[in-house]
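Researcher: Re-running this chain for the archive, since the previous output was lost when a drive failed. Same request as before.
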Amino acid sequence: MKAANVSCFVFKFIRIHRRELCRARTAGQQSSTTQFQQDCSPGHHLPFNRCIGHILHRRYSTESSVKDCRGLLYRNHGDPSQVVQLEPMELPPVGAKSVLVKILAAPINPSDINMIQGTYAILPDLPAVGGNEGVGQVTEVGSQVTTLKVGDWVIPRDAGLGTWRSAAVLKEDDLITLPSDIPLLSAATLGVNPCTAVRMLSDFEALKPGDTVIQNAANSGVGQAVIQIAAARGLHTINVVRDRPDLQQLTDRLRAMGATHVIKEETLRRPEMKDIFKTCPRPRLALNGVGGKSATELLRQLQHGGTMVTYGGMAKQPITVPVSALIFKDVKIQGFWVTRWKKNHIHDEGAMRTMLDELCSLIRAGKLSAPACAEHSLQDFQKALDAAMQPYSSAKQVVVM
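Model: Regenerated structure tokens:
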């Protein structure tokens, strides 16, 4: 491009931006204006594309570009079908270190239900927006945001952001990017269950190809992720599910994901287990999302020195540990909570990034898919909540905005 044309092009953009600066002064955004003047002044040799970036990717208005925002709020703890309401929401201005996010899709997880009921380990201040997981797209960025840009797909770094809404103004540090070339439902359901699965398969036993993992709640979101990630790593899985009318259909689906064996709870106490261990070694790792007798039976199947990791307690019953398992088999019993892992690694950007990159690579390779999902609009939230609380459900309820 000739020098004259470049000068004309620059002048045109600066003239346009001067109008933005006037609006910014009027709106009280002097700090953003000053930053632009410093960065793009003739004496400051900032690359031309960075100056244009200020214009294209920054907005300096005190009003959000999203006008119609709605969310699922609860003002008291209790039965989700009674306390959750769809309400209009007023968005705050986008601050210097904040971004405006259009929420694309958000699932309903058991932890979301427990939060609304008031029984979860952490509870947000009331009134609160439901939802701890989901994916959104950045539509506006603050003047001091450096890690996010307009168009990025983002997910929460931690629980408690409230994802059951059409849009939100969130802090830059509360979000982490995802590539937008993975399926929407995979992105929306990536931050909790697959992260839980990959950490439990990685952090408690040094598993190698050919080893065995046994798990209950195998049809849950975590269970389905465990099956697929384990298969990608060359691990055998013994997957325990409750008996149900569509057991064969569920069994076929889990095997198609890569499950080595799918058995009923009752089989754990029967001689057929000996036949299973003719085809794969006894498990080094047991993953418990149920508790009660189911957890005790998992313990009995572990090899000497194995580990049982508990990440859930759907049966709402304590775990009974046989003395013989501790004395003669030297088993280890530990717990895992992905929220705690994320808090412990909040300053370790590499750990979170590496985990998400691994999961996204598996998704692109066709080795990790989202759980079976039922999609709902915000207006149909009651139907979604009711379905999420039904027993024997293998589908993840997802609110799509």
